Amino acid sequence: MNTERIIIDTKDSRHALSAISGREESAHSFVQNVHISGNNEMNDYIAYQGTKIPLHTHDKGYELFYVQEGELTAVLGGYRAKVRPGDMLLIPPAMPHGFEYGQQTVWWEVMNGMFLWDRVWSLDRIFENCPEKYEDQTFREQYEKRKGQVSYPEFPIEGVTEVNAEKLPGFSGRGMCYKTYSFSGIQCRLKYPKWELAGKKEIWEFELDEQMSVDFGHYVGHELFAVTQGSVRVEVQGREPMTARKGELINIPNFTSHKLTALEAKTTLLDFNVQYNLMLLLDEIVFTKKKNPQRIDPVFLEELLDKHQCPYRAITGIFTR
């Protein structure tokens, strides 16, 4: 049986990838990538007050940040703004970006196609065994270019335009979304559509009423949720039921049936790995309800789920397979 940890407490130090005394920043790895695509590798990044990340770009892969605690100034694509808890940033390949931390800040970072864990792990070994190399800026830049496909522009991070956070490219603040779908007991908010992630996946926020449940069949890619409000009962095949609370992650291995049930009103989940066309599926349900509501029956819904390769088997109050 798959032994991956299902509920991940982000405050649990056993997940620490690097927490070396004297380092300016620390990254804790929660989810290691196990697929050649590098999809959904996740860590939290703890930056202390005064830390600065110089302006840089990545040749490939996407970074998604969710701010949990603290406050920072983000520079993206020539614009600078304050970013606060509940805000998200999506950084595509070749987007110049850098950060300045006004106070201690904790944020979740979801990597797609970048293999950050391997790069940070290697830097730890250099720090421990060859500290003179770690402090050598030329060596660090060469290493980053080889290992992480990172480039550092020559111009300074200060040469940018001050804006409100809403004007930052790739920004999605608390309450912001591309599109919202409201059903009985659940609100589905599309944070980032597929075209912003090279067609690979969508990123959603779901707000559920108490006892609202979602039942999943086998899903090819592993599921990765973050509980940002409330708590959730997690039932996974072959395991005892578990509870995930605010600030914890739900890491479901691939090809694993599972069911999530909200235990409190307004329980909110971020889903970082929706690889099927959920937006198109919900668009079709809404359109059909308006134009031809009598068509909404179990047969129609079964065909719709299969059409969009959706792994749901049941959602309280919406449909049942």
TrEMBL record:
Domain Cupin type-2: 50-100
CDD domains (alphabetical): cupin_RmlC-like
Transmembrane segments: none
InterPro entries, A to Z: Cupin_2, QDO-like, RmlC-like_jellyroll, RmlC_Cupin_sf
Annotated protein name in UniProt: Cupin domain-containing protein
Organism: Anaerovorax odorimutans
